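sanity check this chain:
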Amino acid sequence: MTSRAEPGQPEGLFDDPSAEAEGRSPERDRGASAAPLTAAEAGRQPLAVRMRPRALDEVVGQGHLLGPGTPIRQLVDRDVPMSLVLWGPPGTGKTTLATVVSHVTSRRFVEVSAVSDGVKRVRAEIDLARRELGMTGRQTVLFVDEVHRFNKAQQDALLPAVENRWVSFIGATTENPFFSVISPLLSRSLLLTLEPLGEDDLREVIRRALADERGLNGTVGLDPAAEDHLIRLAGGDARRTLTYLEAAALVVDDGAVIDADVLEKAVDRAAVRYDREGDQHYDVISAFIKSIRGSDVDAALHYLARMIEAGEDARFIARRLIVHASEDIGMADPTALQTAVAAAQAVEFVGLPEARINLAQAVIHLSLAPKSNAVIRAVDGALGDVRKGLAGPVPGHLRDAHYKGAAKIGHGKGYKYAHDHPGGVVRQQYAPDAVDGREYYSPTRHGAESRFTEVLARIRSVLRGAPGR
């Protein structure tokens, strides 16, 4: 079948020929107006779907968005048209919030996937929403999952409906919306940032799923060690938590208690013995840093994987890499710090599991970089002298001379402007008398730092007036 492309777009880019051929309407395709599920059908749904909250008060986590007086509470309570962009990692409740909003406001709910649907589907749903609004006054929640997967032209197609409030648009994205969502759409929407669920939140999700009649209805139990392992595997993702729990429940008999061994077999993920507040936490991070310092890239990657698999906070790992880049590499490879900081930013932007790649790149760079501890020795040496009281007054010629009357008390007198001299360096005392002549920075001959050895020697000879100068 030849697909009909949208004007100005490549042929077939947005069409769904299979839906057209089968006579499926967009609304019927997503079940927007389908009959309620039977008990048997509901029982076959995944546990994560069955346990999806039906009211805002049932939503676990995201207290910063759902507390009294927050924008989403006011929007829901007042039942006004709204446009939202929900930004957060997978499993934090973006789809849940969209469905709850439509449920509590009795709005028609339509879900569009930016992965599999295109402009044709979006426009069809908007037309249906306009007819519904005109004939019955009932509003429609148009939920676009993975909205960042739409290109600019596809996102533009949403603007008339958002601008005229033909629909209540809710877009969900795991990518930074300032980079992935067009400005006109973002400026017309309220941006809400969802955070990964904490351990207490995930325990609440598990407790409900075990006991609730929509969930496992008390048919199985979960021992504490298995619960801890399940939370580590989840990585702040409620959907993953329930998926793994359901997999484990399927391999035990009614009335059984799921232990760590059962959970390992069910999800094919070994339980990493790691206590984030105990010895393992400190031992593994210590071995991690020492492996990088010792240039053993393979051992360093092992410990990185061990921490990630155990659910260690990726931001903690990134912070340690930033420190290490200056403490153990420093000027031997100044780009190491840039790489470490970039990895930390990537952790904030994309989160795990994708950020594991950025962290691994930083670990490889730092492990293979030439090493030098000259930076930490320099700053600690300076700090040591200051703590001993070796400070003293700032030399008069370096003192602030910009205010009226400074010249009368000798401030700035005799100061030599470095740019007026060859090479931008001139003989002059900069340090207080108490530490004049002290040398804190001693560059090594490792990597890029080797070139600073001769540069520093030349500079010091000029500053201090070497013989013949």
Observations:
- DSSP finds 23 helices and seven strands in the chain.
- The chain has four domains: 17-193, 199-267, 279-368, 385-463.
- The first helix runs from residue 17 to 21.
